[in-house]
Amino acid sequence: MVNHHQFWWRFFPQKELTQIYFSVALRSFAISLISIFIPLYLFQEKNLSFEQTLLFFIIYSVVFALTMPLAASFASRFGIKHSIMVGVPLYIVFVALMHYASSAAMQLLLTSSILGASQAFYWMGMHLAFYHASHRQHRGEEVGKRAGVTVLSAMLGPFMGGLLITFAGFKIVFALTAFLLSGSALLLLLNGDGHVPYHFSMKAVFDKKYWKDFLFFVSRGSHVIVQGVIWPLFIFSILKSYFSMGIVGSLMSLSSAVLFWMVGRYSDHSDKRKIMRWSSVAESGTWILMALVKTVPQVFAVTVVSSLVHAVRESPTGALEYDKAKGQVAAYFVNREVFICLGRILALSIVLATSNLAHGMFFQAFANLAAFLF
Predict the structure, then answer these.
(1) Does the domain formed by 15-194+215-373 have CATH 1.20.1250.20?
(2) What is the pLDDT of residues 66-96, one digit of tens each?
(3) CA torsion 154→155→156→162, rounded to 10°?
(4) Could you give the C-alpha distances from 357 to 50, 114, 143, 226, 294, in angstroms and in order?
(5) Predicted TM-score of the model (pTM)
(6) H-helix segments, 101-156
(7) Rounded to an integer, what distance in angstroms lies between the CA atom of residue 295 and that of residue 288?
(8) How far apart are CA 84 and CA 198, in angstroms?
(9) pLDDT at 14
(10) I need a surface site. Which of 157, 213, 289, 341 has the fewest CB within 10 A?
């Protein structure tokens, strides 16, 4: 007999989950307008040194990690969607400060700290909202859908951002980003913020049972920073224009969007760990190739290949992460994000110590293998 819940679920997904998808899509488009250009904006437009640019992201990662327990406490008291709402105006403040960014130590510290705090509040709320709205038996597909709408909505963002920056400057892009981010937060409050009760204590953060996957989460963090900061800085010296950078960013989204959903759906009926582990090996290979590129055609070719491989890996990996969030869920996500931040700091420190961007990608090729420990 057909499982009626499972049958109707396919046609009428939970409204809460649908709102999350739409909100994530709008936020992803807004941030994609500027995200790939942020390290370049600091380095090229604001004339920060190479060391100052990397230090900016190290400070951001430290504040992100330190703010996570505060964000968890806030979400438990005021609601998980209100945690997301706090993250949005903080990001808008960050965008405004970016326009006036300088190499002055205090301003650099303030701007990067605001970015770290905004991400902590947003992701604490989003992780908890998605965890409670998603279904364990369909989580691979649901993570795939979330990742899919994220990259689909971000598909034109870098292209449009590069175009607007080239012909209108950064100011108009910052303003448009702020406006769209406000809309993404309001979407989540259409049904209010129904309180999801959970307990959070700092003591639980230090429980060793949440530390067993720390190497894997460190590798996740280094991946985020290598892809979002080190890779854009590395290829800008080859592409030499914001417009070309925008095309690369859009190409990354275009080449992987559908795969997120397809692999996520497939992983619900197969071995998620097996998919994750062997795709991680393939992704390590792409990071080695990325560190060796020297020409424009090579940049575009390796971008497509790496995006496809990452899309295969991401949905089953994300689903397994949410499946492991048992017991004190908030403490799990706090630990996860803290170790992810440590991974960001580690990758940046390696590049800072060696003054070689390619070393960050070689490090990531090795770090990806931590998937076999998860």
Answers:
(1) yes
(2) 999 999 988 888 888 888 888 888 988 888 8
(3) 80
(4) 10, 26, 31, 9, 13
(5) 0.84
(6) 105-133, 139-153
(7) 15
(8) 17
(9) 47
(10) 289
- d(C-alpha 178, C-alpha 85), whole Å: 13
Q: What is the pLDDT of residues 294-351, one digit of tens each?
A: 998 898 888 888 888 888 888 888 888 888 887 778 888 899 999 999 999 999 999 9
- CA dist 22 and 97 (Å) reads 27
Residue 13 zone, left/alpha/beta (φ > 0; ψ -120 to 50; rest): beta
Taking residue 102's Cβ as centre, other Cβ atoms within 10 Å add up to 12
**Low-confidence winner among 1-10, 230-239, 259-268 (lowest mean pLDDT):** 1-10
Count other Cβ atoms within 10 Å, centred on residue 209. Answer: 12
Contact by Cβ (8 Å): 256, 310: yes
Rounded CA gap, 208 and 140, in Å? 27
Q: Which H or E run contains 235?
A: helix 231-239
Residues 266-283: tens digit of each pLDDT: 788 788 899 899 999 999
Show me where the domains of the chain are located.
Answer: 15-194+215-373
- The string of DSSP letters for 314-373 reads HHHHHHHHHHT--SSHHHHHHHHHHHHHHHHHHHHHHHHHHT-HHHHHHHHHHHGGGGGG
